Amino acid sequence: MATQKAIVLGQIGAPLTLTERPIPTPGDGEVLIKVTVCGLNPYEHYARDWGLYVDKSRMPVVLGNDIAGVVEQLGPNIEHGLQVGDHVFGQSNYLKNTNEQAGLQQYCVLDAYTTNKVPAGFSDDDGASLCCNIIAPFWSIFGAHGLDLPFPFPPGPHDARQPRDYSADTILIIGAGGNCGRNAVQLCKLAGFGTIVATAAAAKADEIKSYGATHVVDRHAPDAEQQIRALVGDDLLYAFDAVNLDHSLGVRCLSDSKRGTLACILPGQVDAELFAHKTAGYDEKFTQGQIHNQPALAAVFATCLPMWLEQRKIRAVPWGVLDGLDPAKVNAVLDGYRDGKPPPKQVHVHVS
Questions:
Q1: Among 38, 39, 119, 129, which one is least packed by beta carbons within 10 Å?
Q2: 236: burial class by Cβ within 10 Å (0-12, 13-18, 19+)?
Q3: CA angle in degrees (0–180, nearest 5) for 313-316-322
Q4: CA 210, CA 89: separation in Å to the nearest integer?
Q5: CA-to-CA separations, 155 to 136, 152, 164, 191, in angstroms, rounded
Q6: Side-chain half-sphere of 343: how many Cα atoms within 13 Å?
Q7: How far is CA 76 from CA 30, 35, 111, in A?
């Protein structure tokens, strides 16, 4: 049996290590990918150090959900126009609970229906930057388990809900300086939100506005909440928190007299007693940024994403490069996330 190199997690809280494991065979509806790029995210730190979403019964576990590469083999029943040799990108399906769908190895498999061709003129790095970090905010804002707002997709047979005009609506994006936050801003701009209020470090204000934010509030400002309230009044119904375990700021900024909703991608909680003055109440929704948990939405999104990239309606977020499957270098990146010193850009492991 042919083998490959892979970086694995053998014990929660321990460093990742290099090992050999079999090259997988694509199953029904899957494609085998020779991995060129695997993007690292805060999640890999949460998995390594907290065991978040890690099935301890099948350790050692391969990590890495943002994947780009070259199609090496097609499994049975592929109906999505992919061919051997195509450069593609996609998110691993961790609902299948298998090491075969993970990126920190030389070869992996992906579900064909959510695997996108890299458009002409773009790189595998462009594609890898638009996996978890764009799926997570999309699923929180437009997915059924988050704010559940209908997205104005191009006309087609997928139209299950009437398109909505968001030109008079306001949304708050907390943590817009990170990659999920940047993508949340540009998705809301693409959807047509009239007012997009974002929080980020003051030094990033111009960059965040270039993605589509209409207002940027310094996240370090002692009066950040008051500045947000001055912009949204008591009318804010939609908020998305991309970074915090403490969701208090998002809830505080929601309307006191109308029932608003905060969607978030990190589990957390707030003290409900602190918000008893919100006479209409509020909703707080934690969502998993996993494209495969809503297959119908996933199929449409995966079809549109390369088109948006090619049309420059969505742009890739910045990245840095780490060459090779080097566990020491990967661990150093995850240590930075753990220690509150994240890299200035998403790190892409160039596997091959």
A1: 119
A2: buried
A3: 175
A4: 25
A5: 24, 8, 13, 14
A6: 22
A7: 7, 20, 11
Question: Could you read off the pLDDT of 125-178 as tens digits, one per residue?
Answer: 999 999 999 999 999 999 999 999 999 998 765 555 677 899 999 999 999 999
Amino acid letter for position 71: V
> Encoding tokens for residue 301?
């999104």
pLDDT for 271 beyond 80 = no
- Given a contact cutoff of 8 angstroms between Cβ atoms, the answer to whether 241 and 198 are in contact is no
pLDDT of residue 159: 53
Q: Rg of the Cα trace of the chain?
A: 20
* H-assigned helices in the chain: 42-45, 124-128, 132-142, 179-191, 205-211, 224-232, 248-253, 295-310, 327-338
Angle at 284 between CA 96 and CA 195, to 5 degrees: 105
Residue 330 burial (10 A CB sphere; 0-12, 13-18, 19+): buried
Q: What percent of the chain has pLDDT over 70?
A: 98
Name the pTM for this structure. 0.94
b/e per residue 258-296 (b: at least 16 CB within 10 A): eebbbbbbbeeebeeeebeebeeebebebbbbbbbbbee
Q: Report how far apart the first and last C-alpha atoms of the chain are (Å, whole number).
A: 21
Q: Estimate to the nearest angstrom the gap between the alpha carbon of 208 and the chain centroid.
A: 17
